[in-house]
């Protein structure tokens, strides 16, 4: 059983853009990290996003698209090339395969055939290099607790792996990851996003600040001017590079106001949507989920977490929230503001500030459920459906 497979789509037919993405995402292991309509940008994008596969729509004129495949192969790109077309002309298919196409998928694309092709690619890529899991923590309102959850999940995961855990701050303007962990960054997100094509592992390592817990931190931009030039989409290349050299990348964000947030959510192995049992939070969560649906995103990687549970008898219940949002509640974190505020003010993770507190134990349990253990890698295909499958299996 292989890992998830990251795809880039090259498509010059705007009318079938959503259909192509939706079709590809029918394969449980497929992730769409970017879509291009300009062939000249293809080589740079493949290298920048570290994709495993490229899906090329040959229509409406296959003969003009085939040379692009040949150029990509000549440039030494290791990504596997999938091609699709309404044409089932034998010479066309043979020519495409000779040029380097690994899988030719006639339209309409058969779901079973696609899933088998993606699974083969996933298995072939399993031993080609490290690929960390990406976890986003998205708040439904300001102050809901996303930064605390993201940083503390990262700290807990760092205690579970003999490797690298990165926490990345995608609140470009007012992110507080560095503050919550009481560190002073030398380099920030803006420094690495400026030149994504030059992101060698040693460059990334120098930019990350190591916290005493073992977590590596990538902070928000230093100035508002830098922050105003950034979107989630501009960080996709960096995120891909981080996943290549880490066991886990935990993201505080993307910010709910970022219109390009879908590009990061699509890359993630799991998206944690943090809510409090308050009507404004639930309404914001509804808007976020509707936005993901309307953009063609899949919600099977999105999980609800309720924070500050038990504050008072007038709160909505977890069942109320889950029913309203039509998503199961993955976990709950109890209300313990005295402990949480103390940890934030001192810049300490809950693991060291109050290791036996209920809020710390709840976050530790969430991290344990997210963590991929060695024993799980030996399970059967029916049990191993990626990080999401393991989460729901544990629920």
Keywords:
13 strands; five-stranded parallel β-sheet; 395 residues; eight-stranded mixed β-sheet; globular; alpha/beta; disordered C terminus
What is the topology?
Elements: E1 5-10, H1 17-24, E2 30-36, H2 42-49, E3 53-57, H3 62-74, E4 80-85, H4 90-99, E5 101-106, H5 111-125, E6 133-139, H6 146-158, E7 165-169, H7 177-180, H8 189-193, H9 201-207, E8 209-210, E9 216-218, H10 224-227, H11 236-244, E10 248-252, H12 262-267, E11 270-276, H13 279-294, E12 302-309, H14 318-325, E13 329-334, H15 337-346, H16 350-353, H17 358-370, H18 386-394
Parallel strand pairs: 1-2, 1-3, 3-4, 4-5, 6-10, 6-11, 7-9, 7-10, 11-12, 12-13
Antiparallel strand pairs: 8-9
Walk me through the structure.
The chain is built from 18 helices and 13 strands. α3 (62-74) runs parallel beside α4 and α6 (146-158) packs across α17. With 395 residues, it is of the alpha/beta class. The protein has an eight-stranded mixed sheet with strand order 8-9-7-10-6-11-12-13, sandwiched between helices. A five-stranded parallel sheet has the order 2-1-3-4-5, with helices on both faces. The radius of gyration is 21 Å and the shape is globular.
């Amino acid at each position: 059983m292989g890992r998830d497979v990251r795809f880039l789509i090259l498509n010059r037919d705007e009318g079938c853009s959503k259909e192509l993405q939706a079709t590809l995402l029918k394969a449980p292991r497929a992730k769409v990290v970017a879509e291009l309509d300009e062939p000249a940008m293809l080589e740079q994008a493949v290298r920048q996003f570290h994709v495993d596969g490229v899906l090329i729509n040959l229509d409406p004129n296959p003969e003009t698209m085939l040379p692009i495949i040949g150029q990509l192969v000549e440039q030494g790109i290791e990504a596997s090339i999938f091609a699709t077309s309404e044409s089932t002309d034998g010479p066309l298919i043979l020519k495409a395969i000779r040029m380097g196409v690994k899988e030719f998928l006639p339209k309409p694309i058969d779901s079973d055939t696609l899933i088998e092709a993606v699974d083969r690619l996933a298995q072939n890529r399993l031993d080609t290099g490290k690929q960390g899991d990406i976890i986003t923590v998205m708040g439904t309102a300001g102050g809901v607790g996303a930064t605390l959850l993201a940083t503390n999940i990262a700290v807990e995961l760092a205690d579970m792996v003999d490797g690298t855990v990165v926490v990345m701050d995608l609140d470009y303007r007012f992110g507080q990851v560095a503050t919550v962990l009481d560190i002073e960054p030398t380099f920030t997100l803006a420094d690495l996003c400026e030149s994504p094509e030059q992101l060698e592992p040693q460059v990334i390592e120098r930019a990350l600040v190591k916290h005493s817990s073992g977590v590596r931190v990538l902070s928000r931009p230093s100035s508002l001017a830098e922050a105003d030039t950034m979107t989630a989409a501009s960080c996709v290349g960096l995120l891909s590079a981080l996943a290549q050299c880490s066991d886990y990348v935990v993201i505080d964000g993307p910010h709910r106001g970022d219109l390009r947030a879908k590009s990061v959510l699509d890359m993630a192995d799991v998206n944690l949507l943090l809510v409090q049992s308050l009507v404004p939070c639930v309404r914001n969560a509804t808007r976020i989920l509707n936005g993901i649906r309307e953009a063609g995103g899949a919600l099977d990687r999105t999980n609800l977490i309720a924070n500050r549970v038990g504050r008072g008898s007038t709160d909505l219940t977890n069942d109320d929230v889950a029913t309203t949002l039509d998503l199961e509640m993955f976990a709950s974190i109890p209300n313990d503001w005295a402990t949480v505020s103390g940890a934030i003010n001192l810049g300490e993770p809950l693991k060291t500030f109050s290791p036996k507190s209920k809020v710390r134990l709840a976050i530790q349990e969430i991290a344990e459920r997210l963590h991929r253990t060695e024993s799980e890698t030996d399970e059967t295909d029916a049990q191993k459906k990626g990080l999401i499958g393991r989460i729901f299996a544990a629920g």
